[in-house]
Design a protein that fits this description.
Layout: E1 9-13, E2 21-27, E3 37-40, E4 48-59, E5 62-74, E6 79-84, H1 90-98, E7 105-110, E8 113-114, E9 122-125, H2 137-147, H3 152-165, H4 181-194, E10 199-203, H5 211-216
Parallel strand pairs: 2-6, 2-10, 3-5, 9-10
Antiparallel strand pairs: 1-6, 4-5, 4-7, 7-8
The structure holds adenosine-5'-triphosphate and magnesium ion.
Length: 217
């Protein structure tokens, strides 16, 4: 992809304190005729390798090419943002990187291992939060830790730590419908971080947050 002419842009940043690789999508209102992502982002090292990923949806309404030949590498500790207008394929790309959606062509590797289904090596914070409505904040955050069979004491310590990190002290026993959109988004973020994944995929993670909370997180 030639970033200058495409409607999708990437930004890279190397944080100092973590070896986790993070990819965030950010919607950006840019009027463009074309609404698909094409090409590659400048490459780095190899925690995540995205090789010629293409995605075309076939349905009753015809064929829609959303991703064409996406190629980029992301190094350990690197944070990149994928920026593009609504409908250009940001969520589709993140779903493929997480193994939730098969690519039509191309390969995704995390630590050299091919991604075909979701695995604990990556965690995704969904644009629509995707919290379990019947579970409390604490149980939502602990869910992946329960599946991973972490000991109860460790689970509680980690859940409490991430509840504090996202500023939801006092809300552990609340249910998602009792929270604002931004608070629900923070639960989704805490749930993903608690899992301590190698690759963190954030789909417009701060969209529902106020500017101050966004800056703090
Ligand atoms: N399962 C599907 N079947 C058919 N088309 C789909 C499917 N999922 C997404 N699309 C189409 O693919 C395109 C990209 O969708 P996607 O959700 O990836 O966009 P996005 O960049 O995340 O948009 P937004 O910023 O609004 O979240 C859209 O035109 C959408 O209608
Ligand atoms: Mg999206």
């Amino acid at each position: 992809m030639d970033c200058a002419t495409s409607n999708v842009h990437s930004q890279r940043r190397l944080p100092r304190r973590t070896s986790r690789t993070s990819i965030a999508s950010i919607a950006h209102s840019h009027d463009s005729e074309s609404s698909s992502i094409k090409g590659d982002v400048p490459s780095g090292h190899q925690m995540l390798q995205v090789q010629n990923v293409c995605k075309t949806f076939h349905g009753g309404r015809g064929t829609l090419e959303v991703l064409r030949d996406i190629r980029f590498n992301v190094a350990a500790g690197e944070f990149i943002s994928i920026i593009g207008p609504s409908g250009c394929g940001k969520t589709t790309l993140l779903r493929i990187l997480h193994g939730l959606e098969p690519a039509t062509r191309g390969v995704v590797l995390v630590s050299g291992k091919r991604v075909e289904t979701p695995s604990p090596s990556s965690a995704m914070v969904f644009q629509q939060f995707n919290l379990f409505p019947w579970l409390t904040v604490a149980r939502n955050i602990a869910f992946g830790l329960e599946v991973a069979k972490l000991a109860i004491a460790q689970r509680k310590e980690r859940t409490d730590r991430f509840v504090r990190l996202v500023g939801l002290q006092g809300f552990s026993e609340h249910y998602p419908h009792e929270l604002s959109g931004g608070m629900q988004q923070r639960v989704g973020l805490a749930r993903a971080l608690a899992f301590d994944p190698e690759v963190l995929l954030l789909d417009e993670p701060f969209g529902a947050l106020d500017a101050i909370t966004r800056e703090e997180l």
